[in-house]
Amino acid sequence: LGKQSRKRAVVLGGSMSGLFAARVLTEAYHTVTVVDRDELTGVSQPRRGVPQGRQVHGLLSSGHAVIEELFPGVTDEMVRAGAHIGDLAGNLRWLLNGIQLAQSHSGLTALTSSRPFLERHVRARVQALPGVEFLERTDVLRLRTSEDHRRVTGVWVAGREKGSAEQVLDADLVLDATGRGSRTPGWLMELGYPRADEEKLTIGLGYTTRHYKMRSDPFGTDTAINTMATPRNPRGAICAKVDGDRTVVTAYGTFGDHPPTDPEGFLAFIRSVSAPDIYDALQDAEPLDDPVGYRFPVNLRRRYDRLPRFPDGLLVIGDAVCSLNPSYAQGMTVAALEATTLRHHLRQGAPIDPLAYFRDLSTYAIDRAWDLMAGGDPGVDDVGPTRTERFRHAYVTRVERAATRDAEVAQAYLRVIALVEPAESLIRPSLVLRVLRNTLGAPYSSLRAHRKTLIQEGPRTS
Ligand SMILES: Cc1cc2nc3c(=O)[nH]c(=O)nc-3n(C[C@H](O)[C@H](O)[C@H](O)COP(=O)(O)OP(=O)(O)OC[C@H]3O[C@@H](n4cnc5c(N)ncnc54)[C@H](O)[C@@H]3O)c2cc1C
Q: What distance in Å separates the CA atoms of residue 209 and residue 69, rounded to the nearest whole number?
């Protein structure tokens, strides 16, 4: 079926996943209405409906590739407007346990900007598409369905201005992109559907972010410095060039070990992370705002894909389905990959089978990110690691050590982190050999000594 028979899709939520979805829906629907409680048009500051927008937002290479495909030329546009572009393995300085990964050119893009900047550019592209309309400062209230509750036929909304009347938006498809606080689970129960299982992994993560104008340059030819948290060193910090000639600095810790939000405490936390170059550069940097914190207690995945039935005319996307440990920087990329899954189903013809859509969302957009994150966060559930998990951790630790010495291993590792390649790519025989060659002859103590030197002298910059 073409556009003739598909009249209106209503997207609930105009954040990243709502925007990606709206773009894809214009290929199949005459009108795509995006509803959000916030004012969106022209907004380039963090907004209420997306409080995480004040924190650093990295865009993984695979997500960037989808965005550029959906909005050709948007990367150039953003770089002209102040975003920074580099090579994922060549211009991002990755540190693990204080040791820098070997750098080399990978051809994978790393775009750094603030979250509101990225959203504003993507939103402007979506707003310019024919058939798209935005209903801003409007609350989504509840679904409207057929009498037998088998089909969603629209959604009730109300403007935020005082005295605004409720109105119904008729829709051939309603897509819930309202984020983690999505009300679809409650709506389903009210309509007599079973509740979707929720998978939760507790991490007790805390973020604190501050923006600076740098006076000394910690970057050299790099665009960002990323000190990743590891089981041995569970605190992390990111320092990245972003739009507006600013540098964003974020620190994070897990299981209640949260970076303080007072300036001295924040600096002291940064000092405790194995990233002396970030700490040193902050000594004479000019703060542009106060440190802002954010708590992320639990990774959450709603298993709509396992439900026996689901109403027609309703789909869910983005954080509303799965919200992932932010320190892996996967959320926007998963949302972009989900939009391509949605497009695949739209091209199969109407109506979309919701359960088939959710199963494909799991397989093609979520599983890889979720498994990578869950595998990298030992101790996140009550059950201890299995023998296979222990073996996997031991091997990944070797990969990480080898990646500090061998650029090819570093690239393979970063391709997995960036969701470009599956984790299985790390066990191809040629790579296993490289990993062993780089770690068997290097006893752990010598690596520790290497790390100590790096912490004292600062990491390599090339
Ligand atoms: C601290 C933190 C850091 C992060 N860092 C990264 C990162 O580095 N890289 C990355 O890729 N991802 C990151 N993420 C995840 C990323 O923010 C989300 O995955 C991304 O925003 C996609 O979410 P979404 O569009 O599904 O929902 P959201 O971004 O949560 O947006 C939901 C939208 O729905 C609207 N809305 C909600 N309820 C209603 C209602 N009833 N009526 C009307 N409108 C409503 C809101 O106003 C909002 O616009 C981070 C998340 C957090 C918490």
A: 31
Shortest-distance Cα residue to atom 9 of ligand 1: 329
Contacts of 394 (CB under 8 A, 6+ apart): none
Q: 0.90 exceeded by the pTM?
A: yes
Around ligand 1, the residues with Cβ closer than 6 Å are 13-18, 35-38, 49-50, 52, 55-58, 139-140, 177-179, 181, 207, 294, 296, 318-320, 326, 329-333, 335
| Residue 458 falls in which region: left (phi positive, over 0), alpha (psi -120 to 50) or beta | left
Per-residue burial over 141-154, b if 16 or more Cβ lie within 10 Å, else e, is: eebbbeeeeeebbb
User: Which class for 73: exposed (0-12), middle (13-18), buried (19 or more C-beta within 10 A)?
Assistant: exposed
Q: Which atom of ligand 1 has the smallest separation from the CA of 63? A: 11
φ, ψ (nearest 5 deg) of residue 191: -90, 0
* Cα–Cα distance measured from residue 30 to residue 166, given in angstroms and rounded to the nearest whole number: 24
Q: Which residue's alpha carbon is nearest to atom 37 within ligand 1? A: 178
Among candidate residues 373, 303, 305, the one with its CA nearest the CA of residue 333: 373
Ranges in the chain, pLDDT < 50:
1, 379-380, 443-462
* C-alpha to C-alpha distance for 297 and 154, rounded to whole angstroms: 33
Tens digit of each residue's pLDDT (9 = 90 or more) over 117-159: 999 999 999 999 999 999 999 999 999 999 999 999 999 999 9
- Measure the CA angle with vertex 74, ends 247 and 352; round to 5°: 115
The string of pLDDT tens digits covering residues 281-325 is 999 999 999 999 999 999 999 999 999 999 999 999 999 999 999
